[in-house]
């Protein structure tokens, strides 16, 4: 029979294996840099609001206070329906306000109807 196994060969093998590998820290990925023009200081120009959005912002709080139990999706449906039923004269106020905002002029005062 063979002599009892004392584990020294495994230790030698493990030392050889551990010494063969080198550990490297992960290299951060290289991302492309976005070059900004000299006049750009991280501020993005806002897109002008549509006539519907101007109407939505004017009426939203009123609808939410009248119907506090409704979920957001139902409030949006109510506002959308009221926009569709709005008279041409009332819509023209918001259309004009949106046009002025698009041109970069001061919007009309908040006096709808």
UniProtKB/TrEMBL annotation:
The keyword Lyase does not apply. Pfam families: HMG_box_2 (PF09011). It comes from the Eukaryota. Residues 45-103 bind DNA. Keywords: DNA-binding, Nucleus. InterPro entries: HMG_box_dom (IPR009071), HMG_box_dom_sf (IPR036910), HMGXB3 (IPR039598). Residues 45-103 form the HMG box domain. GO terms for cellular component: nucleus. SUPFAM superfamilies: HMG-box. GO terms for molecular function: DNA binding. This is HMG box domain-containing protein. It comes from Anas platyrhynchos platyrhynchos. The lineage of its organism: Eukaryota, Metazoa, Chordata, Craniata, Vertebrata.
């Amino acid at each position: 029979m063979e002599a009892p196994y004392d584990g020294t060969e495994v230790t030698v093998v493990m030392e050889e294996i551990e010494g063969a590998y080198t550990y490297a820290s992960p290299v951060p990925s290289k991302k492309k840099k976005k070059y900004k023009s000299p006049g750009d200081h991280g501020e993005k120009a806002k897109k002008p609001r549509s006539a519907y959005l101007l109407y939505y912002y004017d009426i939203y709080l009123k609808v939410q206070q009248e119907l506090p139990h409704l979920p957001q999706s139902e409030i949006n449906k109510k506002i959308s329906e009221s926009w569709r039923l709005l008279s041409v004269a009332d819509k023209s106020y918001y259309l004009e306000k949106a046009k002025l905002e698009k041109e970069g002029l001061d919007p009309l005062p908040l006096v709808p109807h």
